[in-house]
Amino acid sequence: VQLQASGGGLVQAGGSLRLSCAVSGLTFGNSAIAWFRQAPGKQRDAVARITSGGSTNYADSVKGRFTISRDNAKNTVYLQMNSLKPEDTAVYYCATASGYWGQGTLVTVSS
Length: 111
What we know:
By secondary structure, the chain is an all-beta fold.
């Protein structure tokens, strides 16, 4: 199983980024996928999750700003991040419910 996260970068506060997580090696349509993030010196926290049926949930800190979605035809999960804040700066990881993790992509939000 492989998860390839991409789309991170440097953006100014108030800007947007879209992260992608391409998944291979499992039955993607049956898998819940989540995004996590880890800021320097902090623990890794859950950001958003999407079930195989498309139900979503979000951390309170990103509700109304981030949107998780999936394209089963492309085996890819997306995280659309709007109204970014400096405190969103972190390495973002995608993971399956069964415990497989991607390598992370760095998001840096400048003030």
